[in-house]
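To: structure subgroup
Subject: Chain for Friday's discussion

All,

I'm putting the inputs and outputs inline so they're searchable in the archive.
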Amino acid sequence: MRTKIIFAVAVIGILLGLVTAYIHGREKKALPPAYTPASNPYGKGIYANGIVESYQTSGENINIYPEVTGTVVSIPVSEGEHVLKGATLLVMDDSVQRALALQQKAQAESAKAVLEELKAQPRKENLDVARAQVDYASANVKNAEDQLDKQKKSFELNPKSVSKYSLDNAENALSVAKANLEVAQKQYELTKAGAWSYDIRNQENQYEALSKSYEASNALLGKYTLKAPVDGVVLSVNATPGSYISAQGTYDSYTRGFNPVIVLGTDHPYLSVRSYIDEILINRLPDPKDIKATMFIRGTSISVPLEFVRIQPYVSPKVQLSDQRTERVDVRVLPIIFKFEKPKEVTMYPGQLVDVYIEEPQAVDNK
């Protein structure tokens, strides 16, 4: 009985194994693609990845970085907003720099006041005082001369009436009075001449240096407000009031990298496509004047003809388009920029990834 049970269990196990092998061995039907992939529209074409950008005659989107560091106070614009050249995009805390600029302005104004004072010399009141001192010294000389004359006449009439000592004192007093008069006259001439040219020149240099310092501080003060360099559209704002930004931009806690504070795009009816051609395919590119290309919008069956703009003549390391970080890889690519008119049947934005096909010259020759 026990042998029959073991045999039955073994048969059931074998049957289960066969059924399981059959089920897992069947070929599963592949799931349909999320969207129809782009197909080469040319007889022979070069495939490339592309990224949509705002239309620029050179460069990429307009990345705005501050020239100073600080805390964001306000952001008066929002993403998608159209702005004019000179419009305020972001304001940073400038309290410390503003105080420094005001201090240097006051110092420059003080130096200017001293310079004007030097140039206005001699002051009338000082000149009057110096003139009065000359008159006073002249009167003292006259008085000393009179005293000496009296002493001499008395001595001539009666030598015993005036001692030799008194006569010497009168002569000394006259000499001192004349010396004082000479000093007073020189002091008057010095006052009348005004400020020394070297003092004026030195003060002019100080005023100019302080004025330049104020201009530099005031110019730096303006850097705390970011303004639109051109008319355009705000594509991205990567800061928020209260956050700290630097000349490197804003720190992204997710990617642990730095991003531009604000990204602007041009308000143009055209968009650009920057496509990256693998370096091994560069030799297959046609002459720039003969380049024909087509762009496929991912997720749709829409294709858009592209107009060649320029080749960026520098082969660079391949870029990971998903987060715009350069990888250390062996593949290098050549950027080619196209433009196209914004399609009406589908919405497109800068930063969108597309598929690009470029017709090879062999296909052109066969036509």
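Points worth raising on Friday:
The domain at 122-194 is CATH 1.10.287 (Helix Hairpins).
Residues 44 and 363 are 6 Å apart (CA to CA).

D.
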